[in-house]
Write a structure and sequence with these properties.
Layout: H1 3-6, H2 9-31, E1 52-58, E2 64-71, E3 79-84, E4 87-89, E5 91-94, E6 108-114, E7 130-137, E8 141-148, E9 152-154
Length: 158
């Protein structure tokens, strides 16, 4: 290095110690990063045969979005996360498998989502407005459905 000959032996030792400390710190940080981090899911599938479908929903109470899912795929599925217009929803009740259990092929389940709009989000619920309900599954599957605040509907199961 060009700088080292210009520095005294004490300064060289400090600089060398600093460089070694930074390298050791980076290596220790990388060693303790958990390797079980789930990658962000980006694949969106189309609705139709072979996919979970939104069989019906009831959002007449804007604080609770009630959905009925039907698994039309040939294998069991498990819900990973649910988003409403890009905002993660964490409050659920019902018999849909979230994080554990499986929804068997051809089976139907019910889920009531306590709609949350954190203060840090820009999500506000307006009656009559269409929102995107995005459901991610552990099986590397992502589906999105349009849902309208203040409405209740049954969708075709094709």
């Amino acid at each position: 290095m060009v700088i080292l000959p210009l520095l005294g032996s004490g300064a060289r030792g400090l600089l060398t110690g600093l460089v070694v400390g930074i390298i050791v710190g980076v290596l220790l940080t990388l060693a303790f990063v958990p390797f079980t981090v789930r990658e962000e899911r980006t694949q969106t599938t189309s609705l139709g045969r072979g996919q979970p479908i939104l069989e019906a929903y009831d959002w007449t109470d804007v604080n609770h979005l009630n959905i009925t899912l039907k698994n039309l795929s040939s294998s069991s599925i498990t819900i990973y996360r649910i988003y409403l217009n890009g905002i993660l929803q964490n409050g659920y009740t019902g018999d849909c498998p979230i994080d554990n259990g499986e929804l068997a092929s051809s089976a139907t389940c019910f889920l009531s989502i306590a709609v949350s709009c954190p203060l840090s989000s820009t999500l506000t619920i307006t009656l009559g407005r269409v929102y995107s309900l995005r459901i991610e599954f552990y099986e590397d599957l992502v589906v999105s459905y349009p849902v309208t605040a203040g409405q209740s509907t049954a969708l075709m199961t094709a």
